[in-house]
Amino acid sequence: MAKRSKAYEAAAAKIDAEKFYAPFEAVTLAKDTNPSKFDATVEVAFRLGVDPRKADQMVRGTVILPHGTGKTARVLVFATGDKADAAIAAGADFVGSDDLIEKISAGWTDFDAAVATPDLMGKVGRLGKVLGPRNLMPNPKTGTVTADVAKAVNDIKGGKIDFRVDKHSNLHFIIGKVSFDALKLAENYAAALEEVLRLKPSASKGRYIQKATVATTFGPGISVDPNVTKVLTEV
To answer: What percent of the chain is predicted at pLDDT more than 70?
Structure first.
């Protein structure tokens, strides 16, 4: 087992490992137990009662966090002509077609999200082995394969996050930074939770959200009561 720092141990000592905290209380405690000196990310992990090996139990979606993520996403857009111009005007960081496809094929993935116009997906689809494992592949279900590239860029820059259950039935996403006040973190958590609940597969049986944890980047995990689905300032 890896040796924990004194700062981590001190932070962990403030958490009752046997308690399930209400969401507002959990994000407040996450801020208080952040052992890092920098403005760490606040992350959420859910264990879902689904079998992701079955197509009818895959959970994948997007949500625009009401207070953003605290991070300016680097957005790449596969587009040409007037669509490329629109992406540039919207603030996309990288715009192109064959040139970007060639660069990514060589292993470059220095961006946070990718958008593509439908006419280029025949070419972009060949990048699946590079982009797929990094959850960067444009997908119509997440609004990143679209003719309205300007809206897609604005949404991502404005705090849109993608999430997808992994092979172990875990779902991870960020809800902001330690510098956010607790109410904003709780409201971001509530927005993401609402969408995850909305996407519950009909084939999922039993308890859907089996475990929920909030933590900062290098901080200890805080167990959240999975039964609390209405989140404001209740503790």
So the answer is: 96
